[in-house]
Specification:
- It contains 1 helix and no strands.
- By secondary structure, the chain is mainly α.
- The longest helix is centred in the first third of the chain and has 37 residues.
- The protein is elongated.
């Protein structure tokens, strides 16, 4: 009975140590991120540009050309067998 309780105590201490290490690692990461952003300056806001009236768009259009008239030959006779 005594041996079993010692094993459970060891297991409990292992769990406590694991949780302590996990918390310490996460806390260190959060502190590192916070320290890096502590001295970072925010980018300045871009100046507001007055809105300009949009310029007209001109399309270059090619003039339609007449198709040359095709001269058709006499139709060929087709015979079905």
């Amino acid at each position: 009975m005594t041996l079993l309780s010692v094993q459970w105590q060891g297991f409990g201490w292992c769990i406590m140590l694991f949780l302590l290490v996990v918390i310490a690692v996460h806390l260190a990461k959060v502190i590192a991120v916070g320290y890096r952003t502590l001295f970072r300056k925010l980018p300045p806001e871009p100046p507001k540009i007055a809105e300009k009236k949009p310029e007209p768009v001109y399309y270059i259009v090619e003039r339609k050309k007449r198709r040359p008239k095709k001269e058709y030959a006499e139709p060929k006779e087709i015979s079905f067998r």
